[in-house]
Amino acid sequence: MFNVLTGSFKSIVNKIRFQDDASSLKKATTELRKSLLKSDVHHKTTKELVGAIELETKQNGIGQDNFLKSLQSQLTNILTTSGNQGFVYASTPLTTILMTGLQGSGKTTTTGKLALYLKQKKKKVLIAAGDLQRLAAVEQLKQIGAQIEVDVYFDDNETNPVKIALGAKQKAQAEQYDVLLLDTAGRLAIDDELMSQLEDVKKAVTPNEIFYVADSLTGHDATKTATSFKEKIGIDGVILTKFDGDTKGGVALSIAHQVEVPLRFVGTGEKMPDLEVFIPERIVSRLMGAGDIEGLAEKTSAVIDEKKAKEVSKKIKKGEFNFNDFLDQLEMMKKLGSMKSIMGMIPGMSQMAGKLGDMDLENSGEIVRIKALISSMTHKERETPSIINPSRKRRLAKGAGLSEVQVNKILKQFKNAAKMAKKLSGKGGKGMQQMLSQMGGAGAGMPPGLGR
Ligand SMILES: Nc1nc2c(ncn2[C@@H]2O[C@H](COP(=O)(O)OP(=O)(O)O)[C@@H](O)[C@H]2O)c(=O)[nH]1
Ligand SMILES: [Mg+2]
Question: What is the pTM of this model?
Fold first, then answer.
C-alpha cells in the first residue's frame, strides 16, 4: 500500500546518527518534505507534519531514536481525526449506512466489499440498490449480492430512490438485519440535483452514518470533492478506492486531516475481499515497515476455518498433503484478497508487495493448468497422486488438454512442494498463521505447488 513511502522513511531515518546536529536534522526534514510531496501528500499536511517533527526532535534531542519516535507519533497525529474508526454499529440494530460519491468512484463495488466484511463478522447484512440513474446499476448490485451471498433489496418497477431507501429500511427492520447498506446514484460532478436527491434519501431513512467513497486515482480532487460533500450533506467517513493501482499513497495520508473526517476503509483491488480497515496506529506501523500483524490476524481469522487449518497442518506434517487440500487452500487464499494487500501487512514484506502484488492467483497460467489436471483426476488420485501410472498420465493429459511433459512437471512439482512443506512444518509449525509468516521464502505459505 505504501511501499514507496516506507522505503523513503527508512532511508531518511538512517541518515540521522545516534546523536547528531541541527544540520543533519535539516537535511533529513528537507528530504522528508520532498518525498511526502512526491507521494502526493497534501502540501498543507506536509508542512504541518514536517514542522512538528522538526520541533519535537529538537526539543527531545537530535538523534535517530527521537527522530523515529517523532515521525511515528506525528504521523499518527495526522492520520487521526475526531470521529469513528472502522465500522461502528448503532447501539441497537439496525445500523443504516448511506454510501455516497461520484459516478465511477466505486460505490457499488465498495457496498459489496463492506457487506462481505460485515458478513465475515457474522452480521446479517442487507444491501439496497438505490442507484436508479444507470440502468445497469441495479443489476450490478444483484450480481455482487449473489457472488458474496448477501441479500439485495431492489424494486425493478420503482423510479424514486427515496421509496427504495424506505422499502429497504422497512424490510431490514422487519427481518432483523444488523446492517443496511444503501447504494446511491452518483454523477460525474457534483450538482444540485444529486445533492437534493441525497438530502431526500437522508431525511427519509436517517442513516447512522454517511460514507463518502472517493477514487484515490483522482488525487487531490478526492480531497476537494469530499469537502464539498461534507459541507453539502454531511459525511461521517471517507472510503478511498483503487488504492492498488499507481497510487502514490499520499492521498490516504492527508485526506482525513484536510477534510477533517476520518478515513475509514481503503479499497485495494477489484475483488470483494480487497477492502482494508484504516486504523491510524496500524497504518503507521505499516508505514514504518513494521507490518500490521493485528490486521493480518483479523483478516485470516475471518476466512480461515480453524479446524480445517489444523487438519491441513497435521497432514502436511505427515507428508499427506494432497490435491484436494491444495484446492481447499487455493480457495482460502482467494478469500484473503490480493497478494499485494496481504504482503504489506507482513513485517518487512512491504517492499516485496510491489513485486508480487500483481500476481493473480485464480488466473495465472500455472494455476489454470494445475486446476485442469486436478479436475481430470479421480477422487482417489487426488488423495494419493502416487498411484497415477504412465498410462493414466497419458489419459489425464488428454482430458486436461495438457502435454504429458506438463502433467509430469506438475506432479513432480507437487511432490517436491509437499515434501518441502513437511520439512518446514517440522520446525514447530503452527498451521496457517505460521505458513503465512513464512511467505518471504520462495513461495512458502502459498499452497504447496506454487513455489518454483
Ligand atoms: N482496481 C480497483 N478497482 C476498483 C476498486 N473499487 C472499484 N473499482 C472499479 O471501479 C469501477 C467503478 O466501480 P463502481 O462500484 O461501479 O462505481 P460507482 O459508479 O461509484 O458505483 C469498477 O470497474 C470497479 O471494479 C478498487 O479498490 N480497486
Ligand atoms: Mg454504482
Answer: 0.79
